[in-house]
Design brief:
The structure is a single chain. By secondary structure, the chain is mostly beta strands. The chain is built from 1 helix and 28 strands. The protein has a 4-stranded antiparallel β-sheet, with no helix packed on it. It has a 4-stranded antiparallel β-sheet with strand order 2-3-4-5, with no helix packed on it. A 4-stranded antiparallel β-sheet has the order 6-7-8-9, with no helix packed on it. Strand 4 and strand 5 form a beta hairpin.
């Protein structure tokens, strides 16, 4: 028995000596901590003479992005601004129809090899199309009092708004316009997104049930019974080719507002409340890393702030420090290949708000 015990002790000592460094030996170096995301300031877009604001952003790759904005002119009118990113610099486009008239540019969409942008001006609304190096337009069949949103995919486009008779949903099938009828009780469409010609989603308000989500299936708009939190307002619908859908919004309870996210995996919805405070989710995108990214209101006047939500984990990063800045506000994000682009406004002490752009990864 004593011999067996001695043998076991020898084996324990031998194993320990094989894993414990000898005196004076150097222990393996610890793995470095993951580096924080690095945002860089991009060369600013060419500036207009008046105060400017950013509106929309879309990217097809690291060297092809478009952004719209607005200039607040001294005469009180709003003038449309359009910029294009080529991977190195932002250039201003002044050749689009209506560029020399007061008006507004809205959402930018890549439709096949074309770029579609919604434009409204004194003459009403229209869709601008950039194709093969030149501009053309798709006029709307009627003028609306108010244009709420626009979405386009190959073979279809929608414009939602209102006229003197109420809500209008205008549908374009590539050759002609028709008017679609939403379910009874819908007051207005606050936003619309599309994945294909027969798969479009809309955020609506109804007289009897508050905020709801409708879905176009190629035949009719139907309520898809999304369990939006009571009292919640949806600001963003993010549709992905895989079939996944993500909603972002805000819910107010007892005077306290909280941002919520809802994800549909094809079978069920999951609702979460990341630590985002009162973050408006309109600029949310799915990043190249698979996480959700959102621009935020920064507590640092001289730096932008971004949130990254990956499942139950939420982290934050900041843009580069901007000298003498008193407000830096990225408004929208877009995935550009393996990088993220941000577009928004910055105000430097003593100057009017102007445009800014930043990039994560390059």
């Amino acid at each position: 028995m004593n011999g067996l015990r001695a043998l076991l002790m020898c084996l324990v000592i031998a194993c320990a000596s094989s894993v414990v460094p000898a005196a004076g030996a150097t222990a393996p170096a610890a793995l470095p901590a993951a580096a924080a995301p690095h945002w860089e300031a991009l060369p600013g877009p060419p500036l207009p003479s008046g105060a400017a604001g950013g509106a929309e952003l879309a990217a097809r790759g690291p060297g092809d992005a478009w952004a719209t904005g607005v200039e607040h002119a001294a005469d009180g009118y709003l003038w449309p601004l359009l910029y294009r990113w080529d991977g190195t610099t932002w250039s201003r486009d002044t050749t689009f129809p209506g560029a020399d008239e007061a008006g507004h540019l809205g959402k930018v969409q890549f439709v096949g090899e074309e770029v579609w942008i919604f434009h409204s001006g004194a003459g009403g609304g229209e869709i601008l199309r950039w194709s093969a190096g030149s501009w053309s337009t798709v006029p709307l069949p009627q003028t609306l009092w108010y244009y709420q949103d626009f979405a386009a995919v190959p073979g279809a486009a929608w414009v939602v708004g209102e006229d003197e008779t109420g809500l209008k949903v205008l549908h374009y099938d590539g050759s002609r316009w028709t008017t679609q009828t939403p379910p009874d009780g819908v007051l207005f469409f606050s936003g619309i997104e599309a994945r294909s010609a027969d798969d479009a989603w809309a955020m609506v308000d109804r007289t009897d049930q508050g905020s709801q989500i409708l879905r176009w299936d190629g035949t009719a708009w139907r309520d898809v019974a999304v369990p939006v939190p009571s009292g919640g307002n949806v600001h963003r619908i993010l549709l992905e080719p895989s079939g996944r859908a993500t909603l972002g919004g805000m819910r107010s309870t007892d005077g306290v507002s909280r941002t919520f996210l809802m994800t549909f995996n094809g079978r069920a919805w999951r609702t979460t409340y990341p630590p985002l405070g009162e973050t408006y989710t309109y600029g949310m995108v799915r990043g190249p890393d698979g996480a959700l990214w959102l621009p935020m209101r920064s507590e640092r006047a001289f730096q932008s702030k971004y949130a990254r939500v990956d499942g139950a984990r939420t982290t934050f990063s900041y843009g580069p420090e901007r000298k003498n800045a008193i407000d830096v506000q990225p408004r929208v994000l877009a995935r550009a290949g393996a990088s993220l682009l941000a577009f928004g406004i910055v105000e430097i002490y003593g100057s009017r708000p102007t445009l800014m752009s930043e990039r994560l990864g390059g």
